[in-house]
Amino acid sequence: MGRFLLRRIGLALVTLWLLSVIVFVACEVMPGDVARSILGPTAAPETVAALNEELGTDRSVAVRYGDWISGVVRGDLGESYAFRRPVDEMIGQALWNSAKLALLAFVLVVPLGILGGVVAALYEGRAADRAISVGGLSVSAIPEFVWAVAAILVFGIWLDVLPVTAQAPPGSGVLTQIEYLLLPALCLVLVLFGYLARMARAGTVEALDADYTRTAVLKGLPRRTVIRRHVLRNALLPTIAVVATQTGYLIGGLVAIELVFNYPGVGRLLVRAADQKDFPLLEGTVLVIGVVYLLATLLADLAYAYLNPRVRFGGAAA
Amino acid sequence: MDDAKRRVDELRRASTEVENHLIDELAAGKISRREFVRRGTVLGLSLPALSFIAAACGGDDDDGEASPTGGTDTSGADPVQGGTLRTALITPAGALDPLTVGDEGGLAVLGQSGEYLAWSDDELVLQPRIAESWSPNDDGSVWTFAIRQGVTFHDGTPLTAEDVVATIEYHLGNESNALSALGGVLSAGNTELVDETTVQFTLDAPNGNFPYLLSSDNYNLIVLPKTFTGDWESTFIGTGPWTLETYTPEVGVTYVRNPDYWDTGRIPLADRSEVKFYEDEQARVIALQGGEVDVVSNFSVAGGGALLGNPEFTVIELQAAQHRVVHMRVDMEPFTDKRVRQAMALALDRQALVDGLFDGKADLGNDSPFAPVFPSTDPSVAQREQDVEQAKQLLQAAGKGGGFTVTLESWQGFEIPDLAVLIQNAAEAIGVTVELQITDDGAYYGDFTYGGSRWLDSPFGITDWGHRGVPNVFLTSALGTEGPWNAPHFKNAGFDKLVADYVAAFDLDSQRAVAGQIQELLLDETPAIIPYFYFHLAATKNVEGVEPTGMGHFDLTRAGFVS
Question: What is the pTM of this model?
Answer without folding.
Answer: 0.83
